[in-house]
Amino acid sequence: MTKTSDRKLAKGCYEHLGGQLGKLLLEKFLKEGWLTKDDAGDKHFFMTEKGTLEFTKLGIDLSSIKS
Predict the structure, then answer these.
(1) What values do phi and psi take at 35, rounded to 5?
(2) Cβ contact 45:36 at 8 Å
(3) What is the pLDDT of residues 31-63, one digit of tens each?
């Protein structure tokens, strides 16, 4: 069995995924061009056309995302 301290790679925070896993996913999505933002200092990310295609391929229902 894995120690509890080894199991804290992700955490739910309100309605999003946080923790190290959330950070790594965000970095990967940005690197792959699935997400972007208008300005480096902006806190808001936007899904690209490529991201829409790739998330859909993964079976993610994007219609449930609020704009």
Answers:
(1) -130, 155
(2) yes
(3) 999 999 998 888 899 999 999 999 999 999 999
Residue 55: other Cβ atoms inside 10 A: 17
- Closest by CA to 46, choosing from 23, 62, 24, is 62
Q: How far apart are CA 6 and CA 33, in angstroms?
A: 30
Tally of structural domains, the chain: 1
| Inside any domain, residue 50 | yes
Q: Which amino acid is at 58?
A: L
Query: Which H or E run contains 64?
Result: none
Beta carbons within 10 angstroms of residue 44's beta carbon: 7
The model carries a pTM of: 0.75
